[in-house]
Fold this protein.
Amino acid sequence: MLHQKSAAMFLRWVDGVTVRNSTLGFAGEDRSDFAQALLTQNCTNVQTMGLTAEAAAPEYQSIELG
């Protein structure tokens, strides 16, 4: 079974969402099960306003829109 790492916020099949004045990230030292701060799949009209985001590790983008 393929293990996919979790994002702090994950949106799928959304049309029209705004993430406003928020901070996304991860606490603790062991972040091995986590990836992006914000990940979207098959979304349209996604806006971020005043968003601060930090990925769990440098190899991931903080925000990945798709």
Summary: The mean pLDDT is 94. Strands lie at 9-12, 15-24, 38-41, 44-53, 63-64. Residues 9 and 52 are 12 Å apart (CA to CA).
